[in-house]
Amino acid sequence: QWNKESDAWHEYARAEHSKEEERLKNIPDKYRIYNKLFKETLETGLPEYNQWDHEISIIKGGEPAFYKLYNLTEPQLQTRREYIDDILAKGYIRLSTSSAGYPVMFILKKNRKLRLVVDYQQLNKITRKDRTPLPLITELRDRLWGKRWFTALDLKGAYNLIRIKEGDE
Fold first, then answer.
1. Topology of domain 42-161, per CATH?
2. Which PANTHER family does UniProt cross-reference here (predicted)?
């Protein structure tokens, strides 16, 4: 029986408390109040559909098409298969019935690993452009001048967590 009076429950609670204490050891005291902001496990799957989902607006007369695949080496084919299997299992993508398709290639990263890149150049040609300007680098540099603290985020999989508007997938 799993209740607060059982030995099993107390054993589980002690183990969870020990895990939490071990995790907190690595966080400076003054930042521990923010502990709940950080998850121990990564999100899997996509968020529910919402009004702010990313919309892909195709210009009038434009039609997404299927483009020839690029030749890949055996290690690239293996990396592609592992990548697709991984993000399929996580729920970031699903099997497609679309007649459109875009080729993939690989970029060699500094750590000598391969990064998969989808070549969306042809899709970009028929997509209505978002003319919201990005901040100028010089302006950002001026705003950061003299600052002491900076944050680096590893957004490796963040692209796959953006929900595309239903019907635009």
1. HIV Type 1 Reverse Transcriptase; Chain A, domain 1 (3.10.10)
2. REVERSE TRANSCRIPTASE DOMAIN-CONTAINING PROTEIN, TRANSPOSON TY3-I GAG-POL POLYPROTEIN
